[in-house]
Amino acid sequence: MSYTPTLIRGFDSPKKVVDLVPESPRQARLSTAGVGRHQFIRRLSRDPGSLSGVALVAAWVCIALLGPLWVSSPTDQNLSLTLLPPAWLPDGSAAHPLGTDFLGRDLLSRIVYGARTSLTVSVLAVAGAAVVGSLVGTVAAAWGGLADDLLMRVADVQLAIPFVLLAITVLVLLGGSTLNMVLVLVLSGWVIFARVIRSELLHLREAEFVLAARAVGVSQIRVALQHLLPNAMGFVVVVATLELGNVILLESALSFIGVGIRPPQVSWGTMLADGRDYLTSAWWLTTLPGAAVTAAIFGVNLAGDFLRDFLDPRRREF
Amino acid sequence: MTKFLARRLMLSFVVLAGVSFVSSGMMLIAGDPVEVMLEGTTTSDADKVALRHEFGFDRPFLVQYADFATGALKGDLGRSLRFHQPALGIVMDRLPATLRLAVAAMLLAVLVAVPLGIVSASRPNSWVDYGARLLALIGQSVPLYWLGIVLVLLFAVTLGWFPSAGDLDLKSIVLPAFTLGLYPTARIARTLRASLLEVLSREYILTARGKGLSNLTVLSRHALRNAALPVLTVVGLQFGALLGGAVVTETIFAWPGLGLLSVQAISWRDLPLLRAIVMVAAAMLVTLNLATDVLYAYVDPRIRFS
Question: Are B193 and A318 an interchain contact pair (Cβ–Cβ within 8 Å)?
């Protein structure tokens, strides 16, 4: 006679079992996010500083996306109209509102295309770093022990190598291109994501919903990706925004040194480097691209600060 | 404490070993160092073979790495391909300039940021506070290479107050130190403000005020000390970043430090020299982190025993 455990028959299928696992706080997070949408807009509209940051970011995105519809090609040369000053100065021309460079190329159009390059590279790089870093952080927090130790030591090693040196070396050896630039920036960016995500998830390792999921035999990978990782998504967003400013800065600095984006592709950093030779005769060639970089980073930082305060008041810096 | 210290020392050693392995691995990925350096020249194959043999590049990677690692333990970081001299000596010649610049930048940052943070936190949401915050945020957003150029244009070219490049006299350090110090200034001011605001909302501050102590006494004797710890962390981290991050500033101002040397090493394709620079920079950073940790554990016993 065979014994059938009728009482727990309902648990036979693995699907059922999983249903009994207490829901991870992800659900709670998502619902507060739903309620928070109103709050988000209300808080933002009451805070002129943050609002102007968000507006600045939105403006740059629009310029990068739509600007090329209005401006001429950034590589069109006109050697009879070199070093033309901006339109508001004597000798300026309305055809070139921000003047021209030493090859007679329109500065406004170059700044617009520079925004395209800068935003594309930095968004891709931050996205890549977020994916790699979040995975590493989640794995380290979920597995713990040797895997955790090993991954965090790799992060320490990465942090101990001066990044600019590493980036220059890699770019010189591999050659500067958009792809290599993104790769180098991902290499620099993943550590911060990994560390933040890991420290946020560490205390959840022993949380009830995780223990319950483990107890009923949910695989380690599923626990990590479905139960742990979603709890850190808010932090991923915050770190990503704050990192975006850094990455824009690094991209322009590397291009400025001459190892990053190569012509004919336009980058704010290379524009600045080119303009350096005309520092005394044509100040707009360095000042205006520099102001563009600063404005972009300024906007991203303002928006990032707001997002951090909104999603994570504990970490408030301001 | 001894156990804590031993563990931290072990970790630092592991990190440095990791850095040495990664930087040696980078050389392997880059290809034959001799070929990398002499690319495009008309050096004969026999000379290349001789050079390769002299530096031991004809041996397997692991043998080369073991050789480098045992050497590094004894303070030998290999030889520069370009100068045929011990790389460590070349690096050490340049180190003082970098240290000088980093210390000057950090001093400047602390001297400006601490009053800024205090004023900002003691009158939150006043126009002084808004001004300080705006200043700090701008300081965090300005690319330092651009700042360097603008400063040169203004103070060296137009006004002629300071030299635009090099390390000639005392005045030469002003512009690079200012350029390098702006970002840490912003970070320290922001951290101090946040930390002070948090401390000022505590109950013991209310008690101190209730006793009738003046604003100044409350701030200097009760609040500042407790708000100092996060600021110390930022100072430590930023100082580390200054040591490794001066590449751009040193290039702009032709400041004869490690940053400029590393850019030169890259342009000479002198990979062994570059590896030595990376090792020294990493060692400084790791030592600095260790010092911060120990200081922390000293100040806060909870860390020692966890």
Answer: yes
For chain A, the average pLDDT equals 77
What ipTM does the predicted assembly reach? Answer: 0.78
Chain A residues with at least one Cβ partner in B under 8 Å: 153-154, 156-157, 159-166, 168-170, 172-173, 245, 249, 252-253, 256-257, 272, 276, 279-280, 283, 286-287, 290, 293-294, 297-298, 301-302, 305, 316-318
Task: Check if the beta carbon of residue B136 is closer than 8 Å to that of residue B188.
Answer: no
Does residue A27 register a pLDDT over 70? no
Summarize pLDDT for A241-264 with one digit per residue, the tens. Answer: 888 988 998 888 888 888 878 777
Which pLDDT score is estimated for A15?
37
Q: Supply the DSSP symbol for A84.
A: P
Of A153, A245, A286, the CB nearest to B14: A153
How many C-beta atoms surround the C-beta of residue A306 within 10 A?
A: 21
Answer whether A290 sits within 8 Å of B146, measured CB to CB.
yes
Q: Can you give the pLDDT at residue A313? A: 53
Helix (H) or strand (E) holding A63: helix A48-66
* Min Cα–Cα distance to chain B from A110, Å: 17
Percent helix, strand, coil in chain A (nearest 5)? 75, 0, 25
For the CA atoms of B261, B265, B270, B276, what is the dihedral angle to 10 degrees?
40
CB atoms within 10 A of CB A318: 18
Residue A315's H or E segment, with its range, is: none
What is the number of alpha carbons within 13 Å of residue A65 lying toward its C-beta? 6
Choose the closest CB to B262 out of A153, A165, A298.
A165
Q: Which of B146, B196, B251, B263 to mutate to test the interface with A (most CBs of A within 10 A)?
A: B146
Mean pLDDT score, A214-235:
82
Q: Which residues of chain A form beta strands (DSSP E)?
A: none
Amino acid at position B129, single letter: D
The structural domains of chain B, with segments of one domain joined by +, span 88-256
Specify the length of chain B in residues: 306
Q: Measured between alpha carbons, how far is B8 from A152 in angstroms, rounded to an integer?
A: 14
Burial A227-261 (b: 16+ CB within 10 A, else e): bbbbbbbbbbbbbbbbbbbbbbbbbbbbbbbbbbb
Q: Is B19 on the interface with A (CB under 8 A)?
A: yes
Q: Which CATH number fits domain B88-256: 3.30.450.20, 2.60.40.3140, 1.10.3720.10, 3.10.180.10?
A: 1.10.3720.10
Q: Reduce the secondary structure of chain B to three states and give it as a string.
A: CHHHHHHHHHHHHHHHHHHHHHHHHHHHHHCCHHHHHHCCCCCCHHHHHHHHHHHCCCCCHHHHHHHHHHHHHCCCCCECCCCCCEHHHHHHHHHHHHHHHHHHHHHHHHHHHHHHHHHHHHCCCCHHHHHHHHHHHHHHHCCHHHHHHHHHHHHHHHCCCCCCCCCCCHHHHHHHHHHHHHHHHHHHHHHHHHHHHHHHCCHHHHHHHHCCCCHHHHHHHHHHHHHHHHHHHHHHHHHHHHHHHCHHHHHHCCCCCHHHHHHHHHHCCCHHHHHHHHHHHHHHHHHHHHHHHHHHHHHCHHHHHC
> What pLDDT does residue A303 have?
86
